[in-house]
Structures are given as C-alpha cells and as structure tokens.
## 1
Amino acid sequence: MKEANLKDYAKTYEEFDWSKETATLSGLPDGKGLNIAYEAVDRHALGPLKDVLAIRLVRKDHSYEDLTYGDLKKRTAQFANVLRRLGIAEGEKVFSLLGRVPELYVTALGSLKFKAVYCPLFSVFGPEPIFQRLSKGEGAVLVTNTQFYIKKVRDLLDRLPTLKYILLIDVAEDLDDKALSFSKLMKKVSDEFTIPPTQEEDPALLHFTSGTTGMPKGAIHVHKAVFTHYITGKYVLDFQPGDVFWCTADPGWVTGTSYGIISPLVNGVTSIVDEEEFDAMRWYGILEKEKVNIWYTAPTAIRRLMRMNLVPKEKFDLSALRLVLSVGEPLHAEAVVWGESAYGVPILDNWWQTETGGIMIANFPSLKVKPGSMGKPLPGVEVGIADVEGEELVLLTNPEAQGHLVLKKDFPSIFRGYLHEEERYQKCFMGDWYLSGDLAKKDAEGYFWFVGRADDIIKTSGHMVGPFEVESNLMRHPAVAEAAVIGKPEPSIGELVKAFVVLKEGHAANEDLELELIGYARKVMGPAVAPKEIQFVESLPKTKSGKILRRLLKARELGLPEGDLSTLEKN
Ligand code: ATP
Ligand code: MG
C-alpha cells in the first residue's frame, strides 16, 4: 500500500499556504503568468513526461487512441493556431458538443492555450438547451460532429448571430463557409504555439450548473482555478507518479472538465477515457485491463452496481485499485460499506459544486472514513455552518448544529460570476462567505454531513426534515433500491413527507409492502420524520449528471409547471 500524499491532515490544514503548496507549478515561461493548459500539458511535454500517456481513450471495440503529453502539446497548439487563423479573439467562447473523443480534449486545452473561454455541452442535449447555452454564452465557435450539427444545430443558426464557425470533426471538407472541417484546418497550421501572457484572473471556463433546483446558471472560472485542480488531485485523489486514473463523469458536466481533463494532467498521471456510457461488465473489464489505480465516479453508478448480484473483486482482478471516489450527490452509508467490501478499497465521498470549480470537502485517504459523511474541508479552504438572519450570517459553532453550508470565498477556484446574472451572483455572498445553497451539519470531530439542498428542505409539524436522512433510512430496508423524498403541502402540518421508492429486483410493489415500509420508517425515524405517503415508481427522474430531480417530482405531485428540463436524463 502506497503512503498517501496527505499524511497528516490536521497539520497540513493548519499550515496550509496556497502559494507555497502550488510553487511546484511552473507558471508561463519568462514570468508571463499562469495558464491552465501550460500547467496541464506543456510543462510536462517539455520535461520527462513527454512520452508518457496523458490520455488513453478506449473505443467502443476496445481499441485504443493514445495521446502522450508530447502529442497533446502539439495538437492543442494546432487548435490554438486554428482559432487564431479563424480570427477569433482572446476571451471569446469556444463550445464543444461532443462525446468522449480526442477532439474534445484538444478543443478544451487548445482553447485555454489561446485564452478563449471553453464551455462544454452535454452531447445528449437537444436543440433548445443547446440554443439557450450558446446564445447566453455568446458562443463564437462550436466544435461538434456532422450528425449533431445537422440534427440539432443547423436550424438554430439564424438565432445565433455570435456563432462564427462550426468545426466538424468527422468531415474532410468544409460544408460551407461557416461549417468547416476540423481536420483540414488542423493540417494547415503549425504545431508550435506560444501561449500569450495570461493573468491568473483571466476567464478560462464557463460551466452551466446541473439545473437540479431550477434554470441552469453559467458559472465563470479563471485560470487561477488550476491551483485547486492541482491540490485536490494531489491530496484528495492522491495522484502519485505512474498512476492510472479513470473519471467516469460526462464531459458535458463540470466534473468532466475539472477531473476528466485538467486535474489528472496537471498532476502528470494517465487518464483512461471510455467512449461508452455506463455498462457494468465493461466498466469492471476496463478497471481490470487498464490496471486503474484511482476511480472517480458518481453515486448513481455505485447504486446501479450495488443492485447487481455480483461481488466485483471476486470476478475481476482489481488488485491495482487503490481508491474509489464519488461526487455529485450524497453517497449513502450503505453504499460506502458495500463498496469497501465489494472492491476491497476505501470509497471516498466528496462534495463540491460547479461554483467551487473543484473538490471542497472530502474523505481523505489517510483519514478515517465516516460512511455517509462528506468528510473534512480541503486544506486551504475554510468551511462553516451558518444561520442566515436577514442581512446577517452567524456561524454556528456547536457540534451537530444544522445550517447553511458556507465557504470562505478566498480559495482560487471560486466562481467569478454567473454569466449575465450579476444580481444572482451577488446574492450568493455575505461578507467573506459564499453560501452554497446546501444545508449541512458538522460533527464534533470536524466531519461534515449533508442534510439537503436548501430548496428541498421539508417543513413538517414544526420540524425541518432533510430529504437525505429520510432517503438513507429508507434505503436500509432490504426491498429499497432508491428513494426520493419531497414535502407535499398539507394544511394541518405544513408539509407531509412523501417518498418515491424504486424497489430492488424481486420485490413486488403492493399495499402490504407499502404498509411495511411506512411502519419500518416510523420505527427507525420516528413518526414526525417518517414518510406518511409512499409511492412506488420504476425509476426516479435524474439530471444528466446523475442527480435526483426532487423539484420535478414535487411539481408533478402538485400539478405545477415542470420547469426547465433541459438536463433531465431520459431513460
Ligand atoms: P443547480 O445549481 O442548477 O440547481 P446543481 O446544484 O445540481 O444544479 P452542480 O453544481 O452540478 O449543480 O451540483 C452541485 C450540488 O450537488 C451540490 O450543491 C450538492 O447539492 C450536490 N452534491 C455534490 N456532491 C455531493 C455530495 N458528495 N454529497 C451531497 N451532495 C452533493
Ligand atoms: Mg447548485
């Protein structure tokens, strides 16, 4: 067992100094500033990692497309030169609408080199969500393929006056003077590019939130965010020389950029990318064959794997695996315990948001894991629990107090704005603190526990009930695979707790089971908190990043408009 990078959490947290800890990053040559792409690619390509695999893409048929750090340096330089040749200006926005293909990585990092702002879109978006984001983000360039272009984008062009070019990755010739061949352009330009001087505060990335609580917001991040990508890679994901890392996140979501692209590269390890979507046996095969050391995935995936009648470590050689990490939603204690026995390694939940740009709270490899907890703050980040009373924010210091999860806003990757929504952005801050919109508790040992999103909290008979607690308890019943809990208005008690439940295979949805579950819930949670209504469903509505859309369940329950559904996963 390798010794973790973070050996003594308390000491590191106490002594942490961002500038000292990031001194190993090189900065642009001749003191010309800090650029994410230089730290992620060029500085390695100019050193001993030149011929090391940066990205190994596993295609549908299991063949590979391998990119070394040296290859990536050249191809991203070419892409930056393409942008220059097209007359794009620094600060303009380059969008991608692609699956996990090499061009996605080249586009992201090449845009950063050029100092364009990169914004990924989910490839499964239909025309309207694509339009909304491209128009709100004033996209200048879109990199996509012919099929997506014809099916989803071409008819929008009249409504997208800022969009200058569409670069198609799968055609050898231009379609017209706007829709151009990516490869043809790449061939015309040099593979050398000098990154222009870049300020730490220059905008780098635009990420739309998942839209779990409403209309997605466009969070802006700057080049300085690379400090967080580097430190979280080192201390949370525990990247060590020679490591093979696999992040399963969709490239259309912030995790797909921060941890699917930037963090592993900045830390000089090899990333595995699987072209395919979730497929349990394929995934286990990849973990085994590619000797993956660190695996970063999401609770929905873990819950799906858990539902299968299979102990992976008995069927597959997972001896290379050192850590499994999870983000995006609360990871229930059951899943942590199951995962440890199924994989034989720690399952580390961690918390962050589009707005924070990188992991902020984590179960660290060298700390005791508390199943069901998000863990402790990243060194360099101050996290608190607070009450908000009018204009005042009061930090709560007594253990177990429930309140708003707030972060001191001075860490490098805090977002610098919501695109075109200044007021909404300002509302997220009170004094030095950023309000995450989530509710949490902190225990006596300094571990943070997720309670729920502020918007999802249920007020019933004078109690504040966090859906996560109720859902976790329901999932401890052997028949329950997944649960989502909402508050349903009820005049006498404010709201009543209603649960939507997906059953495990082999359990029939009938009145007996409903009564049994209600009885069980009352016993373990007490009658004030336990659901009064249970409805069995085949599946729960989720976002494309795997989050349960409780607001949609609630809207349907109340017969209200369903709201923005652009990120709803269709199953
Ligand atoms: P929107 O802001 O548009 O409603 P969203 O908040 O789901 O969407 P993201 O930024 O992708 O968009 O998700 C961040 C949120 O996901 C967090 O604020 C939190 O509610 C939830 N989350 C992420 N990781 C965890 C975790 N480990 N435990 C509990 N919740 C988590
Ligand atoms: Mg959010």
## 2
Amino acid sequence: RLDIKEIFENPEKFLNKEVEIEGWIRTSRSSKKIGFIEINDGTFFTNLQIVFDEKLENFKEIEKLPISSAIAVKGVLVETPKAKQPFEIHAKDIKVEGYSHNDYPLQKKRHSFEYLRTIAHLRPRSNTFNAVFRVRSLAAHAIHKFFQDRDFVYVHTPIITGSDAEGAGEMFCVTDLDLANVPLNEKGEVDFTKDFFGKETNLTVSGQLEAEAFALAFKKVYTFGPTFRAENSNTPRHAAEFWMVEPEIAFADLNDNMKLAEDMMKYIIQYVMDNAKEEMKFFNSFIDKGLVDRLDNIVNSEFGHITYTDAIKILEDSKEDFQYPVKWGIDLQTEHERYISEKIFKGPVFVTDYPKDIKAFYMRLNDDEKTVAAMDLLVPGVGEIIGGSQREERLDVLERRIEEMGMDKKDYWWYLELRKYGGTKHAGFGLGFERAIMYLTGMKNIRDVIPFPRTVKSAEF
Ligand code: 4AD
Ligand code: MG
C-alpha cells in the first residue's frame, strides 16, 4: 500500500492505474448513489478525495462511517482538471480497518486551541496540530543537520544532575525518598545522604556546563534535549519541560557566537520552508498572515545588534507606557523585548553586554566590571528566543563570581577544573526549541507547539 504522500508528490506515476492506500476519514458526504470521502493518512498535509458509488457492495456501510474511521481503499487514480485537487481516487473496494464512534470530538468545525489542549491525544489529527508537529519534527532534523554538516559533536548531557547550571534555583528535585517519612539530619534538613544518589539531585535546567567540558575536548559540540524549569510563570512562553539546543565552541568569542546563532536560525527557517511547503502555506493563511514573506525576508537580511545599555536608552526615551518601569539594571521583560525587536528593529536583534547582576555566574566579565559578554536574540512576536554568552575562562574571576552570587564553589569543582587544564576562551548559547517553533509557525502559545505540554498546574497527559 502507498503512502498518500507518494501520490501527491508524483501523481503522473499513478494516473489511471490501480492504487491501494489507507487512512482516516476526514470528511464524508453522500447522496443515494454516490459518496465522497476525504482521507488522510498523516504522510501528507492535504486530504485526498475518494469517490465511491453504489457498485460497492458495502456502499451503505461506507457512506455511514463516522469521521475518523480507518479505511483501506483500492481504486484508480483519475484526473479531475476542474476540481480544487487535480486528481481523485475512484474506489473499487473499501475495507473498514477501524470504526470510529459517533461522538468523535473533532467534527468538521473550528475548535478553540484551549479546547484542543484538553484532548492532546487527539489534536495531532487536526490540521493545525498536524502542521505544527510536522514542522517541529523537521526543525529538529534541520538542527542536527546544521551542526553535523559543520562537524559539531552531539553530546548527550545528563537529565539528572548534581549541579545547578543556571544558579537560579529553579529546579525539580529528583528523589527516591519516601515523602511520608523523609529522613532528617541533626540540623532538621532533609538528609539526602539517604537518597538513591547519596546527595541532592535535580532535573537539568541546561546542558551547558557539561557541553563546556566536551567543547574543551572536541572544539565544536552541541547538545539538544529536554530541560526542566520549576519557574512559576504561567505565561504563553514558559513550559516546565522544554527542549533546548545548546552549541558550545572553544576558541570562540561573543561575535563568533552570534554569527553561529544567526546562521543556525536562517538554516532552520530555510529548511522548514523548503520541506514543509503545504504546512507553511496553511500557517500563512490561517494562523499568521504574511508569515512566509516575513520568514523569507529574515533569511535574506542581517540580524540587528544593540547593547543592553543602548536598548535601555531607547526604552527610556520611548513614549510607550510599559507596565514594568525601565531603568539600567532591570532584566528586560517580554514587553521591552518585543518593543525593541518589533518597533525598533522590525526583525531579529541581538542584545549584548547585560549587567552582570541579572545574568548567570558563568558569563565572561567585561572590562567595565559591570557588564558581561552576554547575548540574547529577540524576535518579533516571541521575545527572547536565544540566550548565550562568552564564558568566563579566568579561574580567579570565575571563583570570585561564584562566591559573589552566594553559590558554593564545592558544587562546581569539576567545572572550575576545566579552567585549570587548558581552559581557553569559549562561547555558546541555548535556543529554546519551542520558541523557535512558535516563531516558525506563528503559533502564539507554547502549549500549542509541544505534543503533551507540562506547565504550571497542568500535566494531564
Ligand atoms: O536564557 P537561558 O536560561 O540560557 C541557558 O539556559 C543557557 N545555559 C544557554 C546556553 O548558553 N547554553 O535559556 C535559553 C533559552 C531561552 O532563550 C528561551 O528561548 C528558552 O531557552 N527557555 C524556555 N523556553 C520555554 N520555557 C521556559 N521555561 C524557558 N526558559 C528558557
Ligand atoms: Mg535567558
């Protein structure tokens, strides 16, 4: 049996010949003598029309099949030059492979994304989510291809970790301790020596620190996997479980880092536009008008650059009524990020050299001793999509920063050793994979680009 994609990609090969396909009924209508079914097998975005008539011995059964029933069809592919699709199948035989009940929730009407979230097990069958998850898969492939073609080594960094990569304390604890009977030490704290690992461990917030260790052995590496954050932010951009792409390169500075990020973003966009044409057309028509032209523009233009300090000046001078007051030293909020990328640069922009106090301990201290060699990539519609930096390679400065931030040097002993043994300048960044998918599709909520999203108070599936 053929994948329906094969027919759409090469109809000439099958015209006027008998073909066999299988799939699920998307729409169905019939009169006394003739029926029309639109079928989809998930290999191609567009439905294929099946025409059947009372010559079928099971005509009555087929015509009554509820939407989403699975069928196998044998028939001839014929040209239909005047119809919206240039071909259809005239069925000779239709077999039922799986009945659907009449209360199938995805009937042919528009459903809200909120409602579809409550049926995450069925929503990949809808047009929007079918397109989103195809794009998600292709984008993941594009990322691997981009890095592999450039000889980056893919490192599988651990999911369960003993260190806090961001030093922000937003971690989910991993434990096998009996919560009804938690062992306490003399100080009355949880006694993690009794835990499976003999110490407190957490789900990783980032694979960066381990990626750095490998960059200092392989020069160019990347990790791409799930990360977890117990941030209590119930926003359309934050998930508790999300995927991150984190390249790390030795002998590289902040400019090399931004160049890599820009090349990677353009590559992913181009790859998805080339390989998901139907899906991108759909997003362009139904989700975000003008999306395809905009993405096309981005691939063919240079990303903007501005320092944090200059961005703050622009925000202070703007007439915008920001909810969160602007002054040097604040962490940029989504409203500020969007203003800079949407109103000032009208496209992707790197903001660099943030105040050290709002950034992680590992970022390289600039000569002014007030800012660090950080870069965030901000994009219209989403805000921060990438966060990265040149890393602090000077052992003494790094130790001082760790102490300043009230962290324990002991917890980072191996990370500090990397600076002792041939620690060279190096840099890297993290791309939020879901935010990249939002940017590529125009979807507005992170819950709608993750197959089974985990967010605050939500892990039904
Ligand atoms: O800016 P972040 O926190 O940077 C890091 O984790 C670095 N260790 C990366 C590195 O340099 N290797 O996170 C990177 C990106 C953000 O820009 C954002 O796109 C995404 O990860 N991100 C989230 N995406 C969804 N939900 C969340 N809760 C996210 N937190 C960060
Ligand atoms: Mg960040």
